[in-house]
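B., you asked whether I could sanity-check this one before it goes into the benchmark set. Here's the sequence:
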Amino acid sequence: MSLNSILNIATSGMMASQTGLRVVSDNIANINTAGYVRKTISQSNLISSGMGVGVNIDAIKRATDKYMQAASLNAASDSGQASAVATAMDSAQQLFGDPSADTNYFSTLDDIFSAFSAAVDDPSSTLLRSQAITKVDDFLGESKRITASLSGLAKDADNRIGGDVSRVNDLLKQIDSLNVDITRAQMSGADATGSENVQGGLIDELSSLMNIQVSGRANGGVMVRSTEGVSLAGDGPATVTYNQSGGASGFLTVVTANSGGQVMPLNISSGEIKGLLELRNKELPAMSEQLGEFVTRAAQELNRASNASSSVPAPASMTGRDTGLDSDSAFKNFTGKTTVAITNAAGVIQKRVDIDFTTGSMTVDGLPGPSFNNTNFTTQLTTALGGLGTASFNNGALSLQTASATNGIAIVDDATTPSTKAGKGFSQYFGLNDVIRSNGYSPYETGMLAGDQSGFAAGQSITLRVTDLDGGRIRDVKVTVPTGTGTMQELIDGLNARNGGVGLYGAFALGSKGELSFTSNTATPVSLSVVSDATQRGTNGPSLSQLFGIGPTERSTRGDQFSVDPTMAANPTRLPFAKLDLTVAAGVAALAVGDGRGALAMAKAGDVTTSFAAAGDMSAATKSVLSYGADFSGSVARKAAAATSRKESSAGVQTEVNAQRQSQEGVNLDEELVNLTTYQQAFNASARLIQATKDMFDVLTNIVS
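And here's what the prediction gave me:
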């Protein structure tokens, strides 16, 4: 071997040792730098004619483990999702209060029944009546507060999704641009680890927002893809968009760099954005929907008791709620019997009209009166009242009015065959003596049958969004009210059409109480939300989604629609604490001041078994309002506890995975000191070899000279 070869070997060894010392120095200097990945050098032997002629530094690499990196990214995504959900669910739980405390939201309903129970002993007490009204108002006020706060949490999730998506787009651009720097450095043989560390930090941040797949490129840098393989960075940055459509479910779309502007759905399964989407589209609306159902049924049972009772003296006029129906539909499908009575200031009946809806006949003061049908009911009732009162129906609401301000109106159903429609008596169905008023149409039980006129004109349309259980949009379906005779069945057939309807995904059906519900296909479950609704029932009537409560937005705002009847709030003596007694003799008061049977009925309203519709995560059930409240309270607490548990579990997994990744990628001072000693000794050995070569050159030179 020539001296030149020996000198080249020593020189290459010295340069390799210098590079190794520089790498070790960088590692030690950055031992506490966040996101820094330990450097290593890749070297190989230089071979010539089968003989080693030195060492070559192939590359300076980061000590990464792609499997540990993938595990860390997945753990970050899961933790981001769980943290977002847990934070919001904890805030939601706090809105309802501690379920074990006496001051939580659900205890305000108990306070109502306690207040009415106290009034039973002294029904004439203005103080006890005022206290009862105050308790009802407190319950409804808390319901409004919680509904508004849950809506606020959903809007906050909306805003955070928008901000996160904007950050995702920034990260994708930065990750993609760093690929250029990394490729250039590696092609020129320079150290690209600095750019790779920066890029790695950006990828880690991106993974906390959405789950991704990362793979290396042959010429340096990385490819970032979604879980479904959509290219997000590496071949140019993609652009992610968060699509909002009012109350409809929000969803993500993406336009990749080389797609020519084609918009594709982007489905993610974890990450902070996924957690926020779950909250916005599912969890918070479900909780609001359950709250709305709870408040609706509580109001319904209190109103059932109040409509079966009367104040003393009876009110001179009664105006019911807006049913959303025309008079023909409103008075149709009633069965059973009810009595409308005109009483004087002393509670003595002046005119009694017994109404038999089954036969379509009226009896006036025990004598045969006019017959009627659903189209002329108010006219015939006015005739039967004989000048002492009138009945009218305007803007979906029934009104009864006495001719004299000193008289009053009292209504009571027959004891054996009470009037009924959609599970409510005559007075309750129209809300004539409601203690709790509503500006909505909940519980959406119209009492309509399949053969009844829907009231929606042909050509009107509603756009429904179909989403899968993970919240991904499948499609938007514009349903047009079909032409024909205009029956409810034709409307339902149009909604269920496979072409132009949602028949591919499920079916709408009309329940026994005239409620419209959607049932998803069991094979591929979906949910519906309303993108837009251009339908209207009649003139100035409700839309299809308002009347039947289609979509989570309509149902999740119900808790904000209730308030105490303003007349009763202003005058507590208007509370219906008595009952009309039809068994008394002529000339004897049928309404008594000391009668507390109405107050007792309202005190027991919480124990009356009633039907609850499916709401949120709670299935349809038949139980009392108090029992439903207890289940609802437990459900809220369990959800919050489960979300916190998932957060802690995922955070623990992330900590463990990151610790293992750090042990692989982080700087170990002892190991670096060993490497430092090794490279120093290698450098010294190469230096000594150069010195020996010099000495040999000197000897040879002296011999020649």
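One thing to flag: The first strand starts at residue 39 and ends at 48. Otherwise nothing jumped out at me.
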